[in-house]
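User: Okay, second chain of the day. Same drill as before: sequence in, structure tokens out.
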Amino acid sequence: MPHIFIIEQQREIRSILERILCRAGYTVSTFSDAALAQAYARKTPPSAVVVDMSYQPLTISQALAALRASLPDRNVPFIVTSTWYCDEVNLLPGDGYAEILVKPFLRESLLESIERALWQHQRPKQHPGAMRV
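Assistant: Same drill. Structure tokens below.
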């Protein structure tokens, strides 16, 4: 089963997200900040990352770049959660996030976002010169 990282500063929210994902059959590792996740990712890489950006001291772009640099697979999808939706988010299409979920969000929205992100990440990449049969 896919291994999901949850990076969330608030312990209660982290616990709720972990419970939702575990009940859906995912293996989950939780972290209170991105630095802890970066260190752990080197030995146990995730299939996807759910990261709250509301508290990050860096801009979203900087935080995602730092996290991505620590992963063996630089294409791991990120689902960004936040209590705010700002203009900077609109500037991130190339930063590798799969989706943005604005809090509060529904359990179903989280699970659907993760499924979409994993599907897009795992589907075979077609070589530009390859022909479909």
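The chain has one domain: 3-122.

User: Thanks, on to the next one.
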